[in-house]
Amino acid sequence: MVDVGNVLGKIDVVEDFEYHLALYARIARKVPKGSRNHTVVLGIEKFTFTFLEDPSKVERYFETITRKYLDIRGKMSFMFLNVD
Questions:
Q1: Closest CA to 65 of 33, 43, 32, 49
Q2: In the chain, how many domains are there?
């Protein structure tokens, strides 16, 4: 694995959707408010395979990781998930 930038934390792949979001939130809250002009992606493809069949969970997950904790003001984020 190659770490690029600042590694804020790591999350193991867990089956429990709510627990995973809570772990992500714990890490994201450590980012100082003054440096939140970025998006943190923590190996999302590994975890999203566990709920790809549930569109509402996919939307909620991306809402959480792209906007709830580390929102980028004045910009738009596009995240693509390769499911092949």
A1: 43
A2: 1
